[in-house]
Design goal:
Blueprint: H1 11-34, H2 40-59, H3 65-74, H4 79-109, H5 117-142, H6 152-171, H7 177-185, H8 191-215
Helix pairs in contact: 1-2, 1-4, 1-6, 2-5, 2-6, 3-4, 4-5, 5-6, 5-8, 7-8
Length: 220
């Protein structure tokens, strides 16, 4: 993990980056473990790698109060910032816990066909991880803080891997309207599922673009 936050980022943007990264770390861990996914360790590690790459240039990519404590003792972060990081991390974790509880409950009780609660669960899963994918892509492949990096492919691939491991059994782990259309044509999804997936995936992309601009206002 990067031990030193980027100095150009404002306090609010650093805290938001910590909240987002911690949310996806805890969400991936929670949903993978609760659904007894054998690949949970891989999914958790993959999303952590991706979120560190995505938010490291903004906040340092801690996503862990213990790491923040270490960086505080090291002298690379002030006490007030450390407290704010802890608050952001705990809020992100609690929000993820609430999302996991809702997703797991619906996933475990939903009918096999994507309708009703099952469709809601799948739509939320697609929304969250399409957002995560787009958020990572924008931060590692379009940010001027990474003008010539060689790791963006790893970060993007790990995000997809983490998403498929975590919610593949819930939504199919699509995160891409083009794949959604192709799999629908192949008969793997119904046409009624297509429009729901495409809408939430495009909304997630737009939301990721807005969050990127909010966290990186100088990067036009």
């Amino acid at each position: 993990m990067r031990a030193r936050p980027a100095v150009r980022a404002s306090a609010g943007r650093k805290y938001a980056a910590e909240l987002i990264g911690t949310f996806f770390l805890v969400f991936t861990a929670g949903i993978s473990v609760i659904t007894h996914n054998a690949l949970a360790p891989l999914g958790i590690g993959a999303v952590l790698v991706a979120m560190i790459y995505a938010g490291g240039h903004i906040s340092g990519g801690h996503y862990n109060p213990a790491v923040t404590m270490a960086v505080l003792v090291r002298g690379r972060i002030g006490a007030l910032d450390a407290v704010a990081y802890w608050v952001a991390q705990l809020v992100g974790g609690l929000l993820a816990a609430a999302a996991v509880a809702g997703e797991a409950r619906r996933a475990l009780t939903a009918a096999p066909s994507l309708s009703g609660h099952a469709m809601t669960t799948a739509a939320v899963a697609e929304l969250l991880f399409t957002f995560a994918l787009c958020y990572v892509v924008l931060n590692v492949a379009t940010s001027r803080d990474h003008p010539a990096n060689s790791f963006y492919g790893v970060a993007v691939g790990f995000t997809v891997a983490a998403g498929v491991i975590a919610v593949g059994g819930v939504s199919g782990g699509v995160f891409n309207p083009a794949i959604t259309l192709a799999t629908t044509v192949l008969g793997l999804f119904t046409w009624s599922t297509l429009w729901v997936y495409v809408v939430v995936q495009l909304v997630a992309g737009a939301a990721a673009g807005s969050v990127f601009l909010a966290l990186n206002p100088e990067d036009k």
